[in-house]
């Protein structure tokens, strides 16, 4: 199950799992059925901030062996002195509380069914490297990293691994439209990256796939940067 799977990074992750032959469920608040139809996978409408919506969706799709907590709110920003308090709460409600609710409900079902499983959260290098004006989002992703470690240490006894992937700037269709090639805005972001290019959605999906695989069987509680070296600067 890939939350926020209808577009962007989530869609790339769902595509990668589908190409590997996995039974994929795309979960999102809207656009689910178009995305699922295009990818040839199952789709379910779900609001990750609503316990009842999550439970209903999980009842519909059945057992989940791999959960990718990709859904999140990225579009709300503001500097510390200007960000409206309701906006900060909206960020935390989606990115932190939503990830918590998904992790809790899926893990409960894994444990109850005696199934080992994998949870991969989408974090951000912003949780470790601040950018002015993006602190609300970045604070939420620092919390996702902490939630990842919390879940990993408590779920290990059940054979459930929990890790995170922390991208830097990712060249999603939305970002590409807002920062076209050659624009000063894109050049400013790329200048911070030692490899001098943004990550593709496929770059992120590849790391998610690895963490979900048997090749990562002894990895849990970590957050893997996919940032072209940006955290080194």
From TrEMBL:
<comment type="similarity">
    <text>Belongs to the short-chain dehydrogenases/reductases (SDR) family.</text>
</comment>
<dbReference type="InterPro" id="IPR002347">
    <property type="entry name" value="SDR_fam"/>
</dbReference>
<protein>
    <submittedName>
        <fullName>Short-chain dehydrogenase</fullName>
    </submittedName>
</protein>
<keyword id="KW-0560">Oxidoreductase</keyword>
<dbReference type="Pfam" id="PF13561">
    <property type="entry name" value="adh_short_C2"/>
</dbReference>
<dbReference type="GO" id="GO:0016491">
    <property type="term" value="F:oxidoreductase activity"/>
</dbReference>
<dbReference type="InterPro" id="IPR036291">
    <property type="entry name" value="NAD(P)-bd_dom_sf"/>
</dbReference>
């Amino acid at each position: 199950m890939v939350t926020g799977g209808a577009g962007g990074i989530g869609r790339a992750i769902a595509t990668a799992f589908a190409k590997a032959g996995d039974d994929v469920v795309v979960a999102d608040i809207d656009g689910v059925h178009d995305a699922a139809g295009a990818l040839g996978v199952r789709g379910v409408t779900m609001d990750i901030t609503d316990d009842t919506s999550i439970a209903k969706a999980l009842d519909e799709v059945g057992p989940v062996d791999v959960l990718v907590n990709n859904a999140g709110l990225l579009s709300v920003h503001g500097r510390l002195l200007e960000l409206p308090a309701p906006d900060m709460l909206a960020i935390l409600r989606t990115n932190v509380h939503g990830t918590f609710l998904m992790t809790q409900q899926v893990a409960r079902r894994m444990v109850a069914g005696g199934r080992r499983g994998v949870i991969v959260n989408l974090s951000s290098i912003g949780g470790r490297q601040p950018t002015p004006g993006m602190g609300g989002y970045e604070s939420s992703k620092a919390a996702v990293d902490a939630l990842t470690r919390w879940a990993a240490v408590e779920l290990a006894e059940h054979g459930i691994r929990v890790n995170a992937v922390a991208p830097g700037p990712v060249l999603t269709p939305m970002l590409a439209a807002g920062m076209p090639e050659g624009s000063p805005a894109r050049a400013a972001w790329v200048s911070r990256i030692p490899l001098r290019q943004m990550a593709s959605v496929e770059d992120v999906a590849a790391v998610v796939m690895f963490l979900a695989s048997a090749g990562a069987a002894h990895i849990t509680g970590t957050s893997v940067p996919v940032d072209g070296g940006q955290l080194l600067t």
